[in-house]
Amino acid sequence: MRCTELHPCTNNHVMEVPIMTFYGYMKRNYYNKEGRKADLANDMAGDEAEFPTRVGIKDRDGHGVIRGYLESCRACDACLEVFEECWEEYEKCEKSRSNKNSSRR
Fold it and tell me: Is the pLDDT confidence value at 33 over 90?
């Protein structure tokens, strides 16, 4: 976290929560676990050299970049469905974190 400014009412430093990438979200929540979402996370980690690890919600068309990558790897329909579910969760999580960060200012 980094200090972004002083809070106008308290003069305390306001800390900014950094945005997590989709890769980071999946590793944090599903890596080395069991289930469909864990299968995706484990596959992503196994392909870390090629997977777009630095792409996230703040990137222009981050969703499209990752989906395009999965399609280029010939991911099956079930994998793409899991990706869509996980991306939706990821978006909600990051928007929630962003809102909490904004309310601290």
Answer: yes
